[in-house]
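U., I forgot to send this yesterday:
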Amino acid sequence: MDFITKKSNKLNGRVKLQGDKSISHRAALILPLCHGDAVVKNFLFAEDTMNSLKAMRMLGADIKIVNDEVHFKARGIKSLKPTVKSIYLGNSGTSIRLISGILSSIDGYFAVYGDDSLCKRPMKRIIDPLNMMGARVKSILNNDKAPLLIKGGKLKGIEHSLEVPSAQVKSAIILAALNAEGETKIKEKVKARDHTERMLKYLGADLEIGKDEIRLRGGQKLQARDIFVPSDFSSAAFIITAAALTENSEVIIEDVLLNPTRTGFLEAFRDMGGQFEILDLREANNELIGSIKVYSSKLKGITIEGAIIPRIIDEIPLIAVLAAFAEGETLIKDAQELKYKESNRIESIAYNLKEMGIEYEIREDGLKILGNTFVVKDKYNFYSFKDHRIAMAFALVGFVLDNVRVYDCDNVRTSFPDFIKVMEGINGKINMI
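Result:
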């Protein structure tokens, strides 16, 4: 499947997106560890999150989809049992890392794996701490990557410092620690996404969360509760980018997740001169939500570095596209983690910027981009590198420059299956062939 986009004008309307991917994953994986019944509304039904649900069903979790809601009858982690089948997790790094933490505390053997892209992503970051806790987690190919063989069982609490900010690694340790003996302490030099901590506290867990440390004791009983999943912020960022770049635009995105560990993109967008308002700010199941009203914007280049990077890492392809149409130079630093996503996003972004004619420089930890140096051409051919965020980000270039084709966009189903429908709904000229 390829995207075709044409020059667009005056994006407008109200957008209601499917639920946040990170919170949908955590609802799927954590609610079966609780006791009681719960209903999840506005769950993101995408390939990645469905793989999380399927994995928990394979372990014996009672999960049903009823009229676009997900219903859980939870009986605690001791109700989950080994499966003789290998657990397939598709393209989802969140699924494989978080479920590895859960499996580490279930007595038995488990094999987990994913698609070719997932099996190239680093797993040593979870293998080492989970083994320190008493699990036996092994890379089957001895390359510190999936497939993984996990022997779960009795765990003990540990002290662990996160060398690289990672919500997935942090969450794997936390979920293992829930059923471990003693106390677990996790130290963060830079705070990563905190959806796991917020959800666990909402479900009754006793966590101590300091400025740079998380503490919890094992053996806690969690109580299932209903969850409303706010609109996915990372998906909203594509709407924000499209509206900002397209002339005479004004779009409202409703009920968006505004967790401070996720909204680095909004801060960078504002610093670039992006025009937006936050409406109806409120809290739901321990998460901040609100609506975002965004306008066409005249942008300027900025430097993005340091503590904001973990809060903006998934949106850097969009920052690159915004930078391509901004006045002056944009410098992205401290973003080595881009190399270990669904593609090496530093190289993927650079390849497509070159197709635009944009002046850029690849750096060890990021990119330098000189805005408005694009070359006007009859058509532009971009490649997704089988990376959903690269595919969607560079599709938006067509709204400005016209006649864009992005090759190999099937992976968009993993995170934003309604991408084309949503863009068409606000007057974006996009289709697929």
